[in-house]
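hiii, so i know i said id send this last week but things got crazy w the move. better late than never?? heres the sequnce for the chain we talked about at the cafe, plus the structure i predicted for it. fair warning i was half asleep when i ran it
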Amino acid sequence: MNSADQAAHAEHVSAEVMVELESCATQDAHAVFSALRTTFSSDRAADDVPEEVAGAGSTVWTSTFDVSESKAAAEPRRLTAPVMVSLQGGYWAVDQLRKGLESAFAVHVLGTAAGDQEKEVELRLETR
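okay and structure toks below
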């Protein structure tokens, strides 16, 4: 691949990562998303606080983060219980977002699923 091909390829690499939280306390979802918004741009406003939805089944919170530019490292955050997080996006982008979480939480990789252009990573976050 020559430099022109590499530049064209780099333009098509997505810097967006979809983050999904399921079956955790509302305040823990807020802690995770606010830590990520400190470091990366999000599709959600800063005052968009997760809310519990009444009814059967578990609540799933999702947000998309652009990791192309890191704003600042998040301060450590307290969680009431471990939080299971699913990240989905390009290889580089998912790795950047996982590194961003490490400033705020203890991060444990539980598993990965690799595709041609994207990967999915399952994490468990805990208070450091």
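btw DSSP finds three helices and six strands in the chain. thought thatd interest u
miss u guys!!
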